[in-house]
Structure formats: structure tokens, C-alpha cells
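Quick one, C-alpha cells below:
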């Protein structure tokens, strides 16, 4: 490796690491904000949230890499142009493609590594991330007793504390409804004061109550309370009640339950599911005629499809004589037509749903390729554009990078949506964004190679001059 290559690579690596970390942080923060309300207040510890953030950061890496490459290449070659280093290299006889080559090789290797990372590592991280997120969402929030309000977070109990005294756990005027034995408030506990604390490594909540009464319903009527209900009162000076806090613990679900999702599979597994769904949709289409045939009372269809002249001919014949047309016949025909229409609509919707599901899995396959290819595409846009505008730092490059990233993101979303709905073939829809941006990158490369400004189009000017010369 020559000294020039080492200089350019070192100039690129630093901004790339910095921009990748910043972009990863921004994308991860934006993604986790969707689940913020379901994560706070559950007292699961920093290790659980750290594990969740780590897995989701792996999930965000394929999205962050193209933007990081675009921004860092803009900064690198913009800084070289701003400090006239790019001009000095060109005057020594080195062409622009040669200047771009070391970083292009690095980005190409990075794109290949990103593909294998996206195919082998990301699905496993997604499986762990979403299974952990599911368990966190199912975990109850930590206990929050509010003064004067009933708390129903403990299974089988409704607890009301009218007053909290300081941070030592002292409480006053406690009311507890015990529903563990069934019935309607069959056991009620009232206490003048008490103390609340946890015990046995925070696995149990202990309520130590003072000067109270326990009312037990002795009536056989457990469905509703009436004026004839009889309560037995038991007075106490001191009583302890222990509540298990096992329902507040994070219980892990088996990861195999989430493995059927498309985000948890690699390309080989996605291909198997896609082929199965495609075959299923084709079989459903082939069975439509035989399924709709029983709805016809007089016209029967020969589903064998006799071939005449190389084309399948569906023969129809009368199964029995048609009755005379009268009011009852018309009503019956109208009802039959409605039944056929309803059956056909539901059948088509079922087939289309299967096709959309197959498209979803195929989209996930092509996404692993397109996300890796977009890294190279973003370099083809960022490096020549940086050489043209000759601006480094985090000012103009950030604005331009965000603009092109939004364009790529919008085109990707549109192509994915059209591919899912069957408006475009899935490969066309998924590669559309890269196919549109590649000519833009090649145009910037052409302009930078000829030392032209961004909007100076010598190529078209030459074509127009030649057309005028030929009187066209």
C-alpha cells in the first residue's frame, strides 16, 4: 500500500467511526422511543435494558452504515478539497478515480462484510431482542401506591392507603379487600396504621398492620352483596400479611416461539418459507374452479380442462333442464349470485393474503442484498460530491447526507410497498432506489473528474453543440 493510500484511508477511518457511532445512536434513540412507555417503571435493572439496547443496536447497524459511509466520504474528500490537498494530488498526475480507489476498496469490503453480518448475525440479534422486549412488555410495573386510591397490582387484592408517612414505609388508614377466596369482598381488612417493607431478597411485600379489624363474610351468597350478608369481625392489635412479588419478575419466554417471524431468519430459511407460500397460493388458484362449482345448480363445469390446439378449454354443460322463469326462480338466482360473489371475494382475499405474505418474506431476502449494495452507492454519491463542493466538517456534508438519505429511504419504502402489493416484481421494487441513485453518483463522478461545478453540465452542452452543427 502506497503512502497516498494510507493517507486517504486514515483520513476516512476517523470520520467513519465517528459518524457511524452518531448515526447509530440517533437511530437507536428514535427506535426505542416507540417503546419508552412500556419500558419505564418496571425496575428491571440496567443489565436488562443494556442487553436490549445492545441487540437493537445490532439491528440498526445495516441501516446506519450507508448514511455513515455517505457522510464520512463527504467529510473526507471535502476536507481534502478544502485544504487544497486534493488539488495538489491531482497536479502530481494522479487522477480522481485513483484517489477514490483505496476508500472504494475499503467500502466494497465493508459492503460484503455487512451482507454476511446482516444475514447471519442480525436475525439472531432480532430473535433475542424481540423476545426480550415481549417479556419486558408483559412484566408488571413496580408497585406504586398512591394516597387515597386503590391499588390492584397484586393478584387477588385491592389495597387503599390514605396516608404515607415519610420514606420509612409508615402508613395510616389502610383498607384491604381480599378476593383470593372468590366472591364479592368476602374478606375486608381495616387498620389504623402500619408499616410496609419487602423481605426475602425483595421477593415478598410485607404489610405489618396495627389496631384493626378483619371482616369475614359468612353468607353463602358469593355472587352479590345484600343487606342480609353476615360478617364476622376479628379485632387485632398487630397482624402481618405477606404478598408474593413473583408476578413482577421478568420471566423469559422460549425464543423458539418467535422464530417464525421473517426478521429472525436468514436467506436460506426465508427461501424455504417463500417457496412454500408461493406453492400454496398457486394451489389455491388451481382449486378455485372446483370449489366454486357446487354453487351452480344447473351449469356444471368440466374441471379437467380439455386441451384443444394447445390451449386449455373449460367445457360447460347443462346438468339438468332449466325451470320456467318466474318470481321464485329469479329470487333463487339472485341469492345464488350473492353467494357466489361473497365466496369469490373471500377466496380472492385469502389468495391475495398468501401472496402478500410470500412477498413479505421475499422482500426480506432482497433487503439483505440492497442494504449492503446501498453502502457502495452512497460512497459513489458522497466521495465525488465532496470533491466537488470542497467543504469538510459537519456543516454542509450533514445537510447533503440527510437529503440523499431521505431520498434513498423514501424510494426504498415506496419500492417495498409496491412490491408487497404486487404492483412491481419484488426484485424490481427492492432494487429501484439503488438503481435510481447509481446514475446520480456516476454523474457526480463525471463532474468531479472533469473539475466541473455541481450544476455545470458539459456533457449536455457538447451534445447540443453537435446537434446544432448538424442542423438537427
Amino acid at each position: 500500500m502506497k503512502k497516498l493510500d494510507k493517507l486517504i484511508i486514515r483520513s476516512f477511518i476517523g470520520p467513519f467511526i465517528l459518524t457511524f457511532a452518531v448515526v447509530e445512536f440517533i437511530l437507536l434513540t428514535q427506535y426505542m422511543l416507540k417503546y419508552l412507555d412500556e419500558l419505564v417503571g418496571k425496575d428491571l435493572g440496567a443489565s436488562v435494558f443494556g442487553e436490549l439496547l445492545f441487540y437493537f443496536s445490532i439491528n440498526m447497524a445495516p441501516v446506519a452504515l450507508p448514511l455513515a459511509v455517505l457522510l464520512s466520504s463527504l467529510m473526507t474528500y471535502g476536507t481534502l478539497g478544502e485544504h487544497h490537498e486534493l488539488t495538489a494530488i491531482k497536479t502530481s498526475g494522479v487522477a480522481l478515480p485513483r484517489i477514490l480507489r483505496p476508500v472504494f476498496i475499503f467500502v466494497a469490503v465493508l459492503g460484503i462484510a455487512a451482507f454476511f453480518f446482516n444475514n447471519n448475525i442480525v436475525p439472531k440479534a432480532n430473535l433475542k431482542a424481540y423476545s426480550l422486549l415481549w417479556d419486558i412488555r408483559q412484566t408488571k410495573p413496580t408497585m406504586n401506591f398512591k394516597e387515597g386510591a386503590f391499588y390492584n397490582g397484586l393478584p387477588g387484592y385491592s389495597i387503599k392507603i390514605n396516608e404515607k408517612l415519610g420514606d420509612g414505609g409508615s402508613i395510616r388508614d389502610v383498607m384491604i379487600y381480599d378476593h383470593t377466596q372468590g366472591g364479592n369482598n368476602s374478606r375486608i381488612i381495616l387498620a389504623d396504621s402500619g408499616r410496609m417493607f419487602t423481605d426475602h431478597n425483595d421477593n415478598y411485600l410485607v404489610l405489618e398492620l396495627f389496631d384493626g379489624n378483619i371482616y369475614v363474610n359468612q353468607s353463602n351468597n358469593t355472587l352479590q352483596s345484600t343487606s342480609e350478608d353476615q360478617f364476622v369481625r376479628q379485632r387485632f392489635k398487630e397482624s402481618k400479611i405477606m404478598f408474593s412479588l413473583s408476578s413482577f419478575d421478568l420471566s423469559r419466554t422460549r425464543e423458539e416461539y418467535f422464530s417464525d417471524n421473517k426478521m429472525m431468519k436468514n436467506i436460506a430459511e426465508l427461501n424455504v418459507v417463500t417457496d412454500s407460500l408461493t406453492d400454496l397460493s398457486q394451489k389455491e388458484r388451481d382449486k378455485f374452479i372446483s370449489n366454486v362449482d357446487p354453487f351452480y345448480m344447473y351449469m356444471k363445469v368440466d374441471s379437467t380442462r380439455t386441451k384443444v390446439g394447445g390451449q386449455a378449454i373449460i367445457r360447460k354443460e347443462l346438468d339438468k333442464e332449466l325451470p320456467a322463469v318466474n318470481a321464485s326462480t329469479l329470487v333463487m338466482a339472485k341469492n345464488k349470485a350473492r353467494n357466489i360473489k361473497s365466496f369469490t371475494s373471500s377466496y380472492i382475499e385469502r389468495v391475495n393474503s398468501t401472496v402478500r405474505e410470500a412477498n413479505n418474506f421475499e422482500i426480506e431476502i432482497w433487503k439483505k442484498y440492497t442494504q449492503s449494495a446501498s453502502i457502495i452507492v452512497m460512497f459513489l454519491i458522497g466521495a465525488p460530491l465532496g470533491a466537488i463542493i470542497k467543504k469538510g466538517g459537519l456543516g454542509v456534508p450533514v445537510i447533503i447526507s440527510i437529503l440523499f438519505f431521505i431520498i434513498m429511504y423514501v424510494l426504498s419504502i415506496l419500492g417495498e410497498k409496491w412490491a408487497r402489493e404486487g404492483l412491481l416484481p419484488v426484485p424490481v421494487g427492492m432494487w429501484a432506489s439503488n438503481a435510481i441513485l447509481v446514475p446520480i453518483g456516476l454523474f457526480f463522478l463525471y463532474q468531479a473528474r472533469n473539475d466541473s461545478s455541481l450544476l455545470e453540465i458539459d456533457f449536455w452542452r457538447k451534445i447540443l453543440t453537435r446537434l446544432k452543427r448538424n442542423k438537427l
